[in-house]
Please model this.
Amino acid sequence: MKAFVRNTCMVLTILFQVVVISHSAQSQPDDRWQSGSSQSLRGEVLTLYCFTETKANRWTPDEKRVMLQALQQAQEWLMGQAGNWQVGLQFEAKDLLGGEVWEVDDIPTGTGSGAERVDWIRKATQQAGYRNAKNAYQKLSKQYGQSNMHVLIFAKADGISYAMRYAHGMNKKKYQLEGVLVYQRYDNGAEMPVPAIIAHEILHTSGAWDLYATYAQTREKQAKAMELYPDDIMLRVGHDLNSLKADKLTAWLVGWNPVEESQFEWFRPEDFKK
Ligand SMILES: [Zn+2]
Model:
């Protein structure tokens, strides 16, 4: 009996350690980029989407449907990827503007320069009647009983889609509510693998780094990523979502993979400075 008690205690101790380890490893530890509304891709996550257009270039109902199907595919893929790491994830999607399409004067093309407009989320929340991004985040969290959320703006324009993220030290009123701007097509007008792009950008809001060469990421790191994580969605996107995955590094960054490896930090790009 005594031995049994001791064994039980050992089992409990081991269980306790496992719980503590997995808890502390839920997200990249102490990263200033893990601090906005898109806290982590686990449990229930709310996607608030909306459509924006100009007078000269409007969404058709069919085009909107295609985008919403792409969102659903992206979310299903993300849930599957989280599942590969034994992490439960579900999404809820709501129209931030209750079905109204937001008309703006101009939608600048995103060119992947790093100098793109970053006030889209705040402007979208003002369009929805909130004072600013922080106020919108507080009210929406209360309304949906859900603090883990991001905004997804579908822009009727061509460009390189991008994420707008919050980090400690930024202005909360402007940036606390995080999100992404998804264009209809690439900046050269080419058809875009929208579901993969959406998944890639949502991963950014939860802390994932680009693994391909950008204004903030080096060719050397891209080359190494091609060796180590050739199918990672932060390295490449494509029409076949089944050929893509969230590999060890990306999964660690978003809190799915609890095992940190020494080379991970080396991949940190300039736009995710500590
Ligand atoms: Zn990216």
In short: Residues 200, 204, 210 surround zinc ion (CB under 6 Å). Residues 61-84 form the longest helix (24 residues). The CA atoms of residues 39 and 232 lie 21 Å apart. The helical segments are 2-24, 61-84, 120-127, 133-144, 172-175, 194-205, 219-228, 248-253.
